[in-house]
Design brief:
about 0% strand, 5 helices, mainly alpha
């Protein structure tokens, strides 16, 4: 039994050490992809350009504040942030997708928005909330 446990533990540690390191910008790229899907579905209205510009500004601030390392505990949160990770984005309901993109950006900011002046994660979350509400108001979600 001890031999089996040793084999499993060594196989797990080998798999863990040979895996590619996680790049937080890859996650931000996925969020940007789903936002681009959402932006492509917008009607030709005056507010659509403002919505896209606001999101791009918030995403840019998030990208600029990331240093590649997690600062989740440093930002005042404990443990691992896995409950807020949005893994599946809605394909059809764009009101729901707007909320999912917002939640994913918030989670990313809590985990990786480390560099910058002040509490950058709070700045990103606040602007993302305003962007989400702006979309919900205009699209009657």
């Amino acid at each position: 039994m001890k031999l089996f446990s040793l084999i499993v533990a060594s196989a797990y540690s080998y798999e863990y050490t040979t895996a590619e390191p996680f790049d937080p910008n890859d996650r931000l790229d996925v969020i940007q992809y789903h936002f681009d899907r959402l932006a492509a579905s917008l009607p030709d209205a005056n507010w659509a350009d403002r919505y896209v510009a606001r999101f791009n500004k918030a995403a840019g601030k998030a990208r600029d504040s990331g240093n590649g390392e997690s600062c989740y505990e440093e930002n005042g949160f404990g443990g691992e942030d896995s409950a807020d990770d949005v893994q599946v984005f809605d394909e059809n309901d764009f009101c729901k997708l707007n909320g999912q993109v917002n939640a994913a950006l918030n989670s990313w900011a809590r985990n990786y928005a480390c560099d910058g002046r002040g509490k950058v994660y709070r700045q990103v979350i606040r602007s993302a909330r305003k962007i989400r509400n702006f979309y919900n108001d205009k699209m009657n979600c």
